[in-house]
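User: I'm curious whether this sequence folds into something compact or stays loose and floppy. Could you predict its structure so I can see for myself?
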Amino acid sequence: MVGILFITLGIVSGVWSWRFLWAIPVLTFLFAVLYAFSVLMGVMFRNTIAAIMITIVFWIVCGLFGSAQQKLRPIVLMNDAKAERYEQQQLSTEQQQERDEFLKSHMRIKRVQSILTGLNYILPPTSELDEVAHTLYTGENSINVINLPMKFGETPQELSNRADKAEKFDYVVSKKRPLFTCLGFICFCLGFAGYRFSCQDF
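Assistant: Here's the prediction. I'll summarize afterward.
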């Protein structure tokens, strides 16, 4: 499929981008994740239809977790900057009450983000695999680096330096972590499925 798309796009557009062929290992790796989970579900439930349907739901849920975590991240960063500004200012009684309500809301959001981040380290982050694929296709040196808010009293140069460090960290972590997380998940599913299969009488 990828080969046919590559040739068709090359003939129609005249652009032969060999990076497009990275789709082959990326799609194969994503299939391996879903296949390993479907094998585990097949051994657990001994039902082909159930294994397929649960795997589809699992794929959707993993994508939703990843998307929610990515959308919460800039909100948490902006709220962190706002909380820091609150600490630097002298507030009236009314402003202190507003700050306390804001901090309570902020802590709830951070707890939700922490849970989603933890799930992203356990479940295969399929949405992040899309970003890894994007960097392989385009050759860009960053992955979904968000705009960092300026801290209180921070100069533009300091903000630029902090953004550069965040970009390099984002690139290294976002490019490698999803692969290792998915690989660990594949090994767990196939290993546990093999163990259950050996213990059951089919």
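Summary: Residues 17-196 form one domain. The chain has six helices and no strands.
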